[in-house]
TrEMBL record, chains A, B:
It comes from Brachypteracias leptosomus. It comes from the Eukaryota. The keyword tRNA-binding does not apply. GO terms for molecular function: DNA-binding transcription factor activity, RNA polymerase II-specific; RNA polymerase II cis-regulatory region sequence-specific DNA binding. The chain holds residues 18 to 246 of 398 of the full protein. Keywords: Developmental protein, DNA-binding, Nucleus, Transcription, Transcription regulation. This is TBX1 factor. One of its GO terms (biological process) is positive regulation of DNA-templated transcription. One of its GO terms (cellular component) is nucleus. It is found in: Nucleus. Residues 221-229 have a biased composition (Polar residues).
Amino acid sequence: SVQLEMKALWDEFNQLGTEMIVTKAGRRMFPTFQVKIFGMDPMADYMLLMDFVPVDDKRYRQDVFLSHRYAFHSSSWLVAGKADPATPGRVHYHPDSPAKGAQWMKQIVSFDKLKLTNNLLDDNGHIILNSMHRYQPRFHVVYVDPRKDSEKYAEENFKTFVFEETRFTAVTAYQNHRITQLKIASNPFAKGFRDCDPEDWPRNHRPGALPLMSAFARSRNPVSSPAHQ
Amino acid sequence: SVQLEMKALWDEFNQLGTEMIVTKAGRRMFPTFQVKIFGMDPMADYMLLMDFVPVDDKRYRQDVFLSHRYAFHSSSWLVAGKADPATPGRVHYHPDSPAKGAQWMKQIVSFDKLKLTNNLLDDNGHIILNSMHRYQPRFHVVYVDPRKDSEKYAEENFKTFVFEETRFTAVTAYQNHRITQLKIASNPFAKGFRDCDPEDWPRNHRPGALPLMSAFARSRNPVSSPAHQ
DNA sequence: TTCTTGTCACCTAGGTGTTAATAT
DNA sequence: ATATTAACACCTAGGTGACAAGAA
């Protein structure tokens, strides 16, 4: 059996409609797909892998409010038509594969090397997805059968686990501002975009440090760092 | 068979008398011990590991020149007496162990997670060495015998490789200034101490950047970074 | 005196959302 | 109009030798 790690965080994202950025170079997922595994044969070899299947055959587009004179981006999705041609159905093997059951079970298994791309010609082995389409991550456990006619037993030698709360829409830029804010609040690498962090602010506060700029005041050129200019 | 990577660099260090820093928290080796492996059974499982054996039973001390009025640190070593009591003889398993021969052979095997410490009570699994003592790194390949009476064959199921050019003296601070300079010149993480780097200086040069301070002018307190103060 | 320790500035390496410019 | 790209400031995480202070 398999237990999804950080389920509470996944639920929070899922409630808003999770979005995952895809880039040409490949982008990690956040939250990272992580699981605890139980009930393996400690001595047997297993391969662990993930793939991503379309949730439907639709293409989405961002919703827009039409006010009296202005248009506002909404946080909901409209169906924009039929899905684009399917992407190459790649899989991502956990880089520790193959390994013994004991190895897999003794700690959380993290797919933090997995990257998503929208580049159909990607040759880095990343997972290729269509932007503006919805996907369901799947987790597969494959028992490495030592018998030499193991192909015959392929059907019974693997097991698939699906956590619906990990569904997401692939995007090249966030569509829902609340998703952006939740990513900023929960991903350590986005700490630079937090307007304040009540949690550990007094601890880390250095009196002379430059104040964090608000998201609105931020712009690229006018801000110069004295150490670099 | 096994081939030492970066042999030219190891030779250069060895000619000067390689020194490796040991710290309480654990310090990586530089150069890193890396090998290419040939002739494994691609389908069989192997464990790869390293250990460190004393080269002799001596303790060393730094040499000093006595000039007319002053004493200068030399770059040679004097025997200071008999070795201190032996440290716990730990081994470091390559973290990918066990893995198939095919996996090990398809790329360079790097022991960059291995750390050296002088803390006899270390509980991070690091290699414990006595400072001011000389050591010979050893590399071991263990075939994981599938037979259930595999203990009987332990003798024939492993092979040890020794590269004499990887010998070094464990130190808590560098004794030979030329070793320090070679480390600075060849370790990317020490780039901050290079006085100049003719190789790619024009490329990386930013006109407004603070100039690198020379080794002599450097001191801790008078230098303040405007971004942090 | 000689060796060890802890802290520091300065790096490498790479993961974030932002933004302006460019496609479509 | 909407979607994508590429450069960027700002982080996390952690590997360097220098240095001052401490220990033996």
